[in-house]
Amino acid sequence: MTAQGNSPVEGQQSHPGSAAPAPSAWGRVGDDGTVYLRTAEGERAVGQYPEGTAEEALAFFTRRFEALEFEVQLLEQRVRSEALTPDEATESTKLVAAQLVEPNAVGDVVGLSARLDALGPLIGLQRSKRREDRARKLEESRTRKTAIVAEAEKIAQGKDWRNGVNRLRDLLEEWKALPRLDKKSDDELWHRFSSARTTYTRRRKAHFAELNESREGARVVKERILKEAESLRESTEWGPTSTRYRELMQDWKSAGAAPREVEEQLWQRFRSAQDAFFGAREAANAEQDKEFAANAEKKRELLVEAEALLPVKDVDAAKRVFRDISERWDAAGKVPREDIKPLEARIRKVEQAIRSVEDDKWKRSDPEKSARAGDMLGQLERAIAGIEAELAEARATGNDRKVKELEDNLASRRAFLEMAQKAASEFG
Predict the structure, then answer these.
(1) Contact by Cβ (8 Å): 312, 357
(2) Among 88-102, 131-145, 209-223, which is the least confidently predicted range?
(3) Residue 287 region, left (φ>0) first, then alpha (ψ -120 to 50), else beta?
(4) Rounded CA gap, 73 and 112, in Å?
């Protein structure tokens, strides 16, 4: 059964839970099947349902209202959850509001319109909030992009060739994720950022080109060093060749790094040549040390004789004995390397002790010093005699002040004379 002029759309289902209503406060059905909507301004015909009962007619048009109410409820939920943008929410509100102008439905149409109108301020608040959020995000974007540019420009002037390129790549990805600013500001910052990246890339390429050139130069130098090092590996001139290998090692370090693909290979060959030479030298020294072991034993016996001279009592006799020991020491020959320093230290200790006693004896018998000491004693004795004469005269005249001065002067001169006599006795 259908309502004339306002039949339900084919296939339309009623809202879940709806049932044939009792006579509604929102509408009535006329005798001819016309359905009226009651409003504050009066009644308005919304359609006809001539073939059914009044209850069926009201139920049909009430379900139409419930469908509109469902749309409003759904819109409210989407607006409050901010599932729609303010523009989308405004457009949806207009579409639903158009259906409520003269709806062919029975229900609280005015209340439903009021609910729809109440969404307007909420949408306005959401629009203001979005505007504020966008302004805040743009300001944050401006601040961050400015910081990105500053960091990129710093990197562009630096020399961090390994990490700088990765950092600039990360900054670029971060830039892309930030909101765009106004065209003028965004373009200006982007130009600075792009220029910094270009500058860094150009300087980095120049650095590695120079580095490659330097490494090629180092390769040539190291190949020359290697050639000489390998030519010396069989040398038996242990001293000069050892010195030359040390010089070649310094040259190797000063040459810098060769290209990576050859650096390790060149180094291994250089080290192999060194190891071969120094290994041979160690073997030769070890063999030589065996031959020198007997010489070391002879020198240890000579040390027993030499150290028996200490402490020195007769320096002249000690010098004669030590001279003989020194001659036999030199004749004993070389000793193993590990014995050189300990043995030499012991023989030098005896020699220094004899020399110290000899020096001390010379100091005591130095004619010049003895003569100077004698002259000083004579001067002091004459000065004391003069003071004693003055003191006797002062006492005779009763000049007490003069007496006191002369007595102090005389005591000082006598003390100095005593020290000088003691020093002079060392040259006696």
Answers:
(1) yes
(2) 209-223
(3) alpha
(4) 9
Q: At what angle do helices 109-157 and 163-177 cross, to 10 degrees?
A: 160
The 27-29 sheet, strands edge to edge: 27-29, 34-39, 42-48
Cβ contacts of 155-164, under 8 Å, gap ≥ 24: 155/196, 155/200, 156/196, 156/197, 156/199, 156/200, 156/203, 157/199, 159/207, 161/204, 161/207, 161/208, 164/200, 164/204
3 state SS of 37 = strand
Write down the pTM of the prediction: 0.42
Identify the CA nearest to 388 among candidates 365, 370, 414, 361: 414
Burial of residue 103, with CB atoms counted within 10 A of its CB: 0-12 exposed, 13-18 middle, 19 or more buried: buried
Query: What are the sequence ranges of the domains in the chain?
Result: 27-107, 136-211, 213-288, 306-363, 367-425
> Among 245, 215, 219, which residue's Cα sits nearest to residue 230?
245
Specify the residue for token string 């010379």: 362
Q: What's the CA gap between 328 and 326, in Å, rounded?
A: 5
CA angle 367, 368, 369 (to 5 degrees): 95
pLDDT digits (tens, 9 = 90+) for 209-237: 888 888 888 889 988 998 989 898 889 89
Question: Is the bond preceding 86 in cis, omega lying within 30 degrees of 0?
Answer: no
Long-range contacts of 117-121 (CB under 8 A, 24+ apart): 119/75, 119/76, 119/79, 119/89, 119/93, 120/93
In Å, how far are 7, 17, 54, 414 from 20, measured between CA atoms?
17, 10, 10, 150
Give me the DSSP letters along 369-411: HHHHHHHHHHHHHHHHHHHHHHHHHHHHHT-HHHHHHHHHHHH
